[in-house]
Amino acid sequence: MDMGLSSKTALVTGSARGIGKAIAMELAREGVHVLVNGRGVDEVERTVRELKAAFPATSPRNAAADLTDAEQRAALFERFPQVDILVNNAGIYEIMRYEDVNDDVWDRYFQTNVLAANALCQFYLPAMLKQGQGRIMFIASEEAVMPSGLMPQYAMTKSMLLSLSRSLSKLTAGTDVTVNTIMPGPTLSENVQQIIEGMYPDESMTFADKETAFMAASLPQSELRRFIRPAEIGRLAAFVGSPYASAFKGSPIRMDGGMVPTIY
Ligand code: NAD
User: Fold this and answer.
1) pLDDT digits (tens, 9 = 90+) for 63-103
2) How far apart are CA 210 and CA 28, in angstroms?
3) Distance 174 CA to ligand 1 centre (A)
4) What parts of the sequence cross the membrane (predicted)?
5) pLDDT for 48
6) CA of 139 to the centre of ligand 1 (A)
7) First to last CA, the chain
């Protein structure tokens, strides 16, 4: 399916690796010029080169910046003043005991997962509204609506994104600008793969064995019984970014392998 995205420009935050990189790849497959972001200039450059090699008709650019740093954000806005699609994917997560979540931790999570994304919306949304077209996505998590209790500092920030997305969507009434939230369930980014490898050091086990063991022991509610692949989220994001997805307005869009019990 041609998603009608050819020659659009997209900023995907945290796209040097993981889910963000997969979103960048799937957008580039549709002919989108992707602004690749991450904190490390070299890591971002490697992804830019990979995108260019895979999709030579597109012009990926290095948009490295620490998005929690206001000066680096301002420099980014100066270099890239306009985008058609903004994917707020960058985020941090780790398992933490509630008693260890002090004010500094809350602050770091709020700055990274919420305020940085909000600052990007504040900058890019007005131009989208002015031209009556644009797409903004937040990458939240099933933790936004189903906190496991294993990472309260993270779940809070992902719930906030749902609320922010809904508020911003109200501003888009009557335009072809959309603001939506994708809620992936457990997804096999490199980071998650490393965590699983660390949990099962037994060298006689293949990764598939480890994945099956982990899903059965830790995520029995998953109906998918495997991790979601980043490209699956990437493909969904490309669709939500496309002209065919105009009717998604302020929607929480679940791709969680059946993790979240449905509330009708
Ligand atoms: P990851 O750690 O592999 O990648 C996150 C990216 O964000 C990295 O490239 C990192 O450099 C970047 N980033 C972090 N802070 C940044 C900052 N201040 N400025 C710029 N870039 C920054 O993570 P992932 O597993 O690919 O997850 C991506 C997103 O999807 C996150 O928001 C995460 O919360 C969400 N998510 C992940 C899963 C999962 O199971 N992997 C499930 C649900 C939601």
Assistant:
1) 999 999 999 999 999 999 999 999 999 999 999 999 999 99
2) 32
3) 32
4) none
5) 98
6) 9
7) 31
Looking at residue 195, what DSSP letter applies? H
Question: Could you tell me the two tokens for 64?
Answer: 């490295």
Tell me, yes or no, whether 48 and 96 share the same domain: yes
Is residue 27, in this structure, part of any structural domain at all? yes
- The answer to whether residues 20 and 40 belong to one domain is yes
Ligand 1, residue 188: give the atom nearest the CA. 41
The residue whose two tokens read 């740093």 is: 69
H or E stretch covering 45: helix 41-54
Q: Is position 264 within any domain?
A: no
3-state secondary structure of 88: strand
Task: Give the list of residues 6+ apart from residue 42 with CB closer than 8 angstroms, or none.
Answer: none
The residues carrying an active-site annotation are 154
Q: Is the CB of 181 under 6 A from ligand 1?
A: no
Q: pLDDT for 141-199, tens place per residue?
A: 999 999 999 999 999 999 999 999 999 999 999 999 999 999 999 999 999 999 999 99
Domain limits for position 84: 9-187+228-254
- Against a cut of 0.85, is the pTM above it? yes
Distance of CA 249 to the CA centre of its chain: 18
Number of domains the chain contains: 2
The protein residue whose alpha carbon is closest to atom 23 in ligand 1 is: 18
- Nearest of 19, 170, 150, 161 to residue 94 by alpha carbon: 150
Q: How far is ligand 1, taken at its centre, from the CA of residue 90, in Å?
A: 5
In a domain, 262, yes or no: no
Q: Is residue 46 part of a domain?
A: yes
Residues 96 and 140 reside in one and the same domain: yes
